[in-house]
Amino acid sequence: MAIRNELFKGTLQTIILNLLEENGRMYGYEITQKVKTITQGDLLLKEGALYPALHKLEAEGLLETMVEVVDNRVRKYYLLSEEGKTEVVSKLQEAREFINNLQLLLNLKPQLK
Amino acid sequence: MAIRNELFKGTLQTIILNLLEENGRMYGYEITQKVKTITQGDLLLKEGALYPALHKLEAEGLLETMVEVVDNRVRKYYLLSEEGKTEVVSKLQEAREFINNLQLLLNLKPQLK
DNA sequence: TTTATATACCTAAGAAAATTATGTATATAA
DNA sequence: TTATATACATAATTTTCTTAGGTATATAAA
């Protein structure tokens, strides 16, 4: 997924679902750029990781797609299905617990609360 | 690694190294119990994940071992090598950046700082 | 006494999720 | 015409985990 960050293994689905919840529909390339911008280049989301993940989420019924042509190039937009909207909520809750547990295990508790 | 937590993939090495830095020498079973206690049972570190990880860290020269017999049972203690003590510092720094980036990507920034 | 649970180590087969390396194609800047 | 950016995709491999099994001792319960 990234330059020197095997830590992100397992978090990709949650990241994708949350970005789609925040931004409405997005296409694959747009997601890679968004991740790069948000993390200031720390995290480079590889296509070999992203596309299979998107296809899997779609196959599971969490995402829906619509294809459009812009500037003679095909874009495949992804958006949350109703099921996906439900799923992102529980995935985010799990992520909160994950971060909390990881901070406990690594003695990295934040300064407040 | 856990009940329903594929999120922890990739974080195991860092967790092990940090626990050994905090507690000095530890043996495998002790590590599994420590993780269980700290996370209040949220994270169950499986032996099939732990032992190969310990062996790998030892093979990489980050850990040293000493075997002792207690109550007729063999314990294999692990402790940080000099190289391991250096490595744990950078691994923790990476973990801080990882958590920060993940919180940014998931809109989970902590209340303070 | 035998069974279950806790302690303590280990590995092998398989699954899941990533990296690396490709491939196709268009648009634009050098 | 070459490189870079945009935009999709997959195949082979690697890494890392789960699941499932194995060995062995100590102790509590049935």
Automatic annotation (TrEMBL), chains A, B:
Give residue ranges for domain Transcription regulator PadR N-terminal.
16-87
Q: InterPro entries, alphabetically?
A: Metal_resp_DNA-bind_regulator, Tscrpt_reg_PadR_N, WH-like_DNA-bd_sf, WH_DNA-bd_sf
Q: Name one Pfam family in it.
A: PadR
Instruction: List the keywords (alphabetical).
Output: DNA-binding
Top-level division of the source organism's lineage: Bacteria
Q: Molecular function (GO) terms listed?
A: DNA binding
Which PANTHER family does this one have? PADR-FAMILY TRANSCRIPTIONAL REGULATOR, TRANSCRIPTIONAL REGULATOR RV3488
The identity of this protein, by name, is DNA-binding PadR family transcriptional regulator
> Native species of this protein?
Pedobacter duraquae
